[in-house]
């Protein structure tokens, strides 16, 4: 059994009624929930906390009545709102394609610098001098020459983190 907030609202009250008591199930001392609710509070919608299984409530006027009249008040039980979980939609990603690249300098006295992204995602740069060459395994489309006269050739597929460069 859970405690929930409920609202009792009166649309009209008899003349002279200024205070009422609120009971659940029936007018008996063990069922008294709140005493001294003002007419203004009841007309505006009086919120109270009670067990979720109570659905019938009674108001007993403390003043303004000559005689006794039982008034049955039905307080709607709020429907619990259950949040709908949001399941993230995975964003499709293109698979990383890697190839061997053979980098080489442009000849005697040449110094060529290359930048590239390795298959493991790390960004690297390398400088090659004279007639030297170097083999790397890099993501397709990420190799570029920063300066110098050297160039590269593309080889077959590879799957090492960064080839000999690592």
Task: Outline the structure in words.
- The protein has 166 residues and is mainly beta.
- It folds into two domains: 72 residues, no CATH class; 68 residues.
- Helices cover 4% and strands 45% of the residues.
- The protein has one helix and twelve strands; from the N terminus they run E-E-E-H-E-E-E-E-E-E-E-E-E.
- It has a four-stranded antiparallel β-sheet with strand order 3-2-5-6. It has a three-stranded antiparallel β-sheet with strand order 10-7-12, with no helix packed on it.
- 17% of the residues are buried.
- The model has no long low-confidence stretch (mean pLDDT 82).
Q: How would you summarize this macromolecular structure in one to three sentences?
A:
This protein has 166 residues and is mainly β. Helices cover 4% and strands 45% of the residues.
Question: What labels would you give this structure?
Answer:
single chain; 166 residues; mainly beta; four-stranded antiparallel sheet; three-stranded antiparallel sheet; 1 helix
What does the radius of gyration come to? 40 Å
What proportion of the residues form beta strands (DSSP E)?
A: 35-45%
> If helices are DSSP runs of H or I spanning 4 or more residues, what is the number of helices?
1
Question: What percent of the residues sit in helical stretches (DSSP H or I)?
Answer: under 10%
Mean pLDDT: 82
Shape: rod-shaped
Number of E-state strands? 12
The total number of structural domains is 2
């Amino acid at each position: 059994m859970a405690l929930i907030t409920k609202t009792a609202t009166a649309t009209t009250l008899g003349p002279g009624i200024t205070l009422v008591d609120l009971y659940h199930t029936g007018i008996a001392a063990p069922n008294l929930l709140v005493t001294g609710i003002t007419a203004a509070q009841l007309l505006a919608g009086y919120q109270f906390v009670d067990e979720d299984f109570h659905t019938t409530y009674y108001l007993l006027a403390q003043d303004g009545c000559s005689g006794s009249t039982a008034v049955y008040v039905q307080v709607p039980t709020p429907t619990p709102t259950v949040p709908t979980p949001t399941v993230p939609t995975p964003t499709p990603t293109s698979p990383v394609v890697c190839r061997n690249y053979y980098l080489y300098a442009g000849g005697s006295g040449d110094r060529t610098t290359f930048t590239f992204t390795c298959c493991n995602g790390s960004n690297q740069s390398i400088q090659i001098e004279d007639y030297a060459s170097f083999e790397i395994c890099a993501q397709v489309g990420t190799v570029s020459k920063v300066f110098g006269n050297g160039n590269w050739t593309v080889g077959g597929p590879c799957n090492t983190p960064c080839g000999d460069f690592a």
